[in-house]
């Protein structure tokens, strides 16, 4: 029973996220979470543009609430907006931005779009970023292009802190698949070694003081004994 409930929960979460994305458009919603409480259901929408989702006087938010109540049979629904303060570190926002750029300027500009996005993410302070584009770029045959910079964990427990997302761009030659992986500077790495600069400077200062004191001490002279015959 628990497995069936988990599968149903994930299916509902995916369907709600896709429905909200279709209503609001690509590039406005990053994540959608559902929390079931004794009082009712709470849907948390993570976005970098809260004003567009709320609308004037909360009209857009009321439309979303009515749509979810009608299609997903929520009894006591509560919508909550979670604003993303640093969208440069959100992989879904970045992937959607790349998809919008490819749809607007065409797949021939894919290198310019990818390198500009990579530069923007790294300038914001990310530890690492990887962008993969798959599709008919730029010829008739499908290829996979990889753009990466910085440090990125691929395996192990520390790879879980990497934020990953996917998106699709519908262009004239065909569909382009987009995969983005970002390692945020706020990520906690278990195998990272932190160096205490203050302690190192203190040790260097103590060593210099010790060397100065040892140089100031007078040198002892050894007096030899003369044997009388």
TrEMBL record:
<keyword id="KW-0694">RNA-binding</keyword>
<keyword id="KW-0699">rRNA-binding</keyword>
<dbReference type="InterPro" id="IPR004044">
    <property type="entry name" value="KH_dom_type_2"/>
</dbReference>
<dbReference type="InterPro" id="IPR004087">
    <property type="entry name" value="KH_dom"/>
</dbReference>
<dbReference type="GO" id="GO:0003735">
    <property type="term" value="F:structural constituent of ribosome"/>
</dbReference>
<dbReference type="InterPro" id="IPR057258">
    <property type="entry name" value="Ribosomal_uS3"/>
</dbReference>
<keyword id="KW-0689">Ribosomal protein</keyword>
<keyword id="KW-0687">Ribonucleoprotein</keyword>
<dbReference type="Pfam" id="PF07650">
    <property type="entry name" value="KH_2"/>
</dbReference>
<feature type="domain" description="KH type-2">
    <location>
        <begin position="16"/>
        <end position="85"/>
    </location>
</feature>
<dbReference type="InterPro" id="IPR036419">
    <property type="entry name" value="Ribosomal_S3_C_sf"/>
</dbReference>
<dbReference type="InterPro" id="IPR015946">
    <property type="entry name" value="KH_dom-like_a/b"/>
</dbReference>
<protein>
    <submittedName>
        <fullName>30S ribosomal protein S3</fullName>
    </submittedName>
</protein>
<dbReference type="InterPro" id="IPR001351">
    <property type="entry name" value="Ribosomal_uS3_C"/>
</dbReference>
<dbReference type="GO" id="GO:0019843">
    <property type="term" value="F:rRNA binding"/>
</dbReference>
<dbReference type="InterPro" id="IPR005703">
    <property type="entry name" value="Ribosomal_uS3_euk/arc"/>
</dbReference>
<dbReference type="InterPro" id="IPR009019">
    <property type="entry name" value="KH_sf_prok-type"/>
</dbReference>
<dbReference type="Pfam" id="PF00189">
    <property type="entry name" value="Ribosomal_S3_C"/>
</dbReference>
<comment type="similarity">
    <text>Belongs to the universal ribosomal protein uS3 family.</text>
</comment>
<dbReference type="GO" id="GO:1990904">
    <property type="term" value="C:ribonucleoprotein complex"/>
</dbReference>
